[in-house]
Structure formats: C-alpha cells, structure tokens
Amino acid sequence: MKSNKVKLIVIVVMLVAALAVLFTIYSRQAAERNDLNGRLDRAQTLLTGLGAQKETLQDDLAQARSSLDTNLAKFPRVVESIEYGDDLFEIAADCNVHITALTASPPSDEKVGGVTYSVSSFVLTVSGATENMLKFVYAIRTGDGFQLPWSAEVNSINMNVGGGSANINLDIYGYKR
Question: Could you give the C-alpha distances from 105 to 82, 102, 142, 174, 177, in angstroms and in order?
C-alpha cells in the first residue's frame, strides 16, 4: 500500500510538473501572440497611412512632372528667341543699322509636310540710312549672316524715310529637332 501511495504521489507530482511546464509554455506563447498581434495592428495602421501618403506623393509627382513638361516646353523657345536676337543684332551691325526695339512673341509649332518648325514672330524697329535699312531687310529675307539654321519671312515693313527708321514684322522658322 505504501508503494501504491508513493506511486500515486510520484504520478501526481509528475502531473503537476507537466502542467506547470505546459502552463509556462502556454503563457509565453500567449504573451508572444499578444505582442505579435500588437505589432500587426501597428503595421496595419502604418500601412494604411503609408497608402494614403503614397497616393498624395503620386499626385505631387504627377503635378511636378506636368509642371516640368510645361516649363521645359517653354525653356528652349526662350533660348531660341535669344539666339535669333543675337543673329539679328549681328546682321544689323553688318548693315550699319541699329535695332532700337525688338519684341518677340512666344513661339508656336507649325507643321509643313512631315517637318515641324518652331515659328517665332518678331517686331523690329531699326534706324539708319534708307539704303542700309533696305540692305538689312534683304539680308534677313535671304538668310545672309544667319549663324543658326533658320529662315525668316518678312511680313510687313513700315518705313519712315525722312525719320530714318523702319518697323519690320517678321516670322522666323527654325527646324525643330
């Protein structure tokens, strides 16, 4: 009987020990599960916020690209107008006339056949001797002295022969690459 009691006590102690080990393992796993659930909740909250931020950033990127495209489209045209102006002043100096006013309108694209040209309109006021002003108009019409690959179409000339000045309206066609 004594040996049955000892066996029963040993079995009970082993059961209590096994239950204690199982309880410890379960408690640790429950704590780890709670920690992981908390981290998952924080990650999901962060993911939602990042999704909204991503959409905002994509909208900002689209606006920035649109603004960049708009500004890039304007930039080369301004440079071309400056370069045309350089040629015009050089031709004027060669013809002994002075450009007293130069107004350029924003360039536009004009397609002729399969080629697209950049067309800039200019209004020039020049002063000098009548012969020199006519030489200047001829040089512009024929392309004499152009450094850039462009051609000009003189639309109108209003000369004040007695005052030694002329207003010239012209379009400059530049090959667009």
Answer: 12, 10, 22, 14, 21
Per the structure, the complete domain to which residue 138 belongs is given by: 83-175
Q: Number of helices (H) and strands (E) in the chain: give both, helices first.
A: 2, 5
Which of 88-97, 105-114, 158-167 has the weakest average pLDDT?
Answer: 105-114
Residue 155 lies in a domain: yes
Q: What is the pLDDT of residues 47-69, one digit of tens each?
A: 888 888 889 989 998 998 888 77
Query: At 134, which CATH number?
Result: 3.30.70.60
* Residue 123 bridge partners (DSSP): 103, 169
Q: Is the pLDDT of residue 1 over 70?
A: no
Does some domain include residue 9? Answer: no
> What is the count of structural domains for the chain?
1
Structural contact between residues 102 and 84, judged by C-beta atoms closer than 8 angstroms:
no
Residue 95 lies in a domain: yes
